[in-house]
Every structure is written in structure tokens, then in C-alpha cells.
């Protein structure tokens, strides 16, 4: 039975993604910084395991890795971080505002991924997906503000690009998925969006590693 680990599963979309994988018969490890919706466990029973993970607490990542041991994980989907609430002009941005956004959105995913390298190696699919944003794209975004958030996601993209090269020898596929494509998709209900995302992640090849994609597999320029 394949296994997927999903962080941020205490929020709506990662929770729906967890439900999708469990419906397909996957073993789901749902991680979040607050309590996971009990209905997920009630519906799927032993197919779902809940575990605590807080991206702002480095010891939380270490405890999660220790709890997993060398258990095989086929797909890791990282969607835990600080959302786009940064609307400050540049003169109003200080280190106290910048630091937690960069920590949660850039450092924390890289740190957790590094701790779970063995788990991915032991899995069959070896897919490491992280949620990024159109706001990280220099070539496809002309908005204003959001300085810290944009920087954090652009840095995440670069880290995943690095990982795609670093971990290529053992077959890891590193994906960046835009949350904007998920949240703003028109003419598609949430179930269809989740299904398209899961289908795309399940069909990727090594040629798509290290690149930025919409939820349904359209490339996003750097």
C-alpha cells in the first residue's frame, strides 16, 4: 500500500487532498499544527494517521522524523506555512515581520524534506511536492506588495530546484505546485481540482522535476 504524508492537513485544501488519497486506498499521514478534523479518521479508519507538525517549531520536524523512523513514504506534500497576508509597504517591513514568513515558507519545508530523505528513498514513487505561488514568479506576475511572502516562495522555488539536482541520482522528483491555481480555478469544484492535482502528481516524470506547475500541470515561468 502506498503512503502519502501531507502537512497543513488542518486546513481545507490539504484536508481534501488527504481524503482523496484515502479514497484511492493510500495510507495517509495527515500532519498539522492544530487538531486534524476528526471526520477524516472516522470516515477512513486506519487508513489515516494524524500527527502534529508546526513549521515554526524546529523540534516539531525532528519529532515527526523520529516518529516515522525509516518508514517508506511514496509522496510528500508540504503545504504548511504562513499565507499571503503581507500588505506592507517596503518601509514598514522589519525583521520581526520578515523572519517568521521566511522561516515557515522556505526554511521549514527544506528542513523537513532533509529529515525525510531516507523515507522517500525507501518509497516507490519518490515524489516531493511543495506548495508555492504565482507570486513567486518574476516572469508571470506584476502585482505589488507582499514582499516577504513573494521572497519566501521564490526562495522555496530555488531550494526545490536545488533539491531536484541534489537528489536526482536516487530518483526523487521535486515538484512546485501553485496554490493560486488551486484557490482561483474557475469552472471547477473543489473535488475536481483535488482530483486533477492528485492525477498530475501521480503521472509526473523526472523531466518535470524542479519546475513550477499549476494544479493541473501547466508550467509557470520563473
How is this structure best summarized?
With about 220 residues, this protein is α/β, with parallel strands linked by helices. Helix content is about 45%, strand content about 15%. About 0% of the residues have low confidence.
Describe this structure in words.
This protein starts with a strand and ends in a 9-residue tail after the last strand. Residues 183-187 have low confidence and may be disordered. It has a 7-stranded parallel sheet with strand order 3-2-1-4-5-6-7, with helices on both faces. It has helices at 12-23, 38-44, 58-68, 95-115, 117-122, 147-166, 179-183, 190-203; strands spanning 3-7, 27-32, 48-52, 75-78, 127-132, 173-178, 212-213. Strand 1 (3-7), helix 1 and strand 2 form a beta-alpha-beta unit. With 222 residues, it is an alpha/beta fold. The chain has a single domain (3-213), classed as NAD(P)-binding Rossmann-like Domain (Rossmann fold), CATH 3.40.50.
Features:
222 residues, alpha/beta, Rossmann fold, seven-stranded parallel β-sheet, globular
Q: What is the element string, with H for helices and E for strands?
A: EHEHEHEHHEHEHHE
Number of strands: 7
Q: What gross morphology would you assign?
A: globular
Q: How much is the average pLDDT?
A: 90
Give me the CATH fold name.
Answer: Rossmann fold
Question: Could you estimate the helical fraction of the residues in percent?
Answer: 40-55%
Number of domains: 1
Cα gyration radius (Å)? 17 Å
Amino acid at each position: 500500500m502506498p503512503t502519502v504524508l501531507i502537512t497543513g492537513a488542518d486546513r481545507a485544501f490539504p484536508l481534501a487532498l488527504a481524503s482523496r488519497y484515502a479514497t484511492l486506498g493510500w495510507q495517509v499521514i495527515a500532519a498539522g499544527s492544530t487538531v486534524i478534523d476528526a471526520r477524516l479518521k472516522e470516515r477512513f479508519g486506519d487508513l489515516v494517521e494524524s500527527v502534529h507538525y508546526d513549521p515554526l517549531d524546529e523540534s516539531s520536524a525532528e519529532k515527526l522524523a523520529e516518529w516515522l523512523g525509516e518508514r517508506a513514504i511514496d509522496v510528500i506534500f508540504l503545504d504548511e506555512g504562513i499565507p499571503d497576508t503581507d500588505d506592507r509597504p517596503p518601509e514598514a517591513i522589519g525583521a520581526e515581520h520578515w523572519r517568521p514568513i521566511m522561516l515557515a515558507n522556505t526554511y521549514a519545508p527544506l528542513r523537513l524534506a532533509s529529515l525525510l530523505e531516507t523515507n522517500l528513498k525507501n518509497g516507490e514513487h519518490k515524489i516531493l511536492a511543495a506548495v508555492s505561488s504565482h507570486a513567486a514568479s518574476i516572469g508571470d506576475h506584476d502585482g505589488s506588495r507582499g514582499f516577504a511572502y513573494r521572497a519566501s516562495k521564490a526562495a522555496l522555488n530555488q531550494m526545490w530546484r536545488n533539491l531536484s539536482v541534489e537528489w536526482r541520482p536516487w530518483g526523487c522528483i521535486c515538484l512546485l505546485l501553485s496554490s493560486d491555481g488551486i484557490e482561483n480555478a474557475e469552472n471547477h469544484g473543489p473535488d475536481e481540482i483535488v482530483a486533477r492535482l492528485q492525477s498530475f502528481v501521480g503521472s509526473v516524470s523526472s523531466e518535470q522535476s524542479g519546475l513550477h506547475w499549476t494544479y493541473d500541470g501547466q508550467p509557470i515561468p520563473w
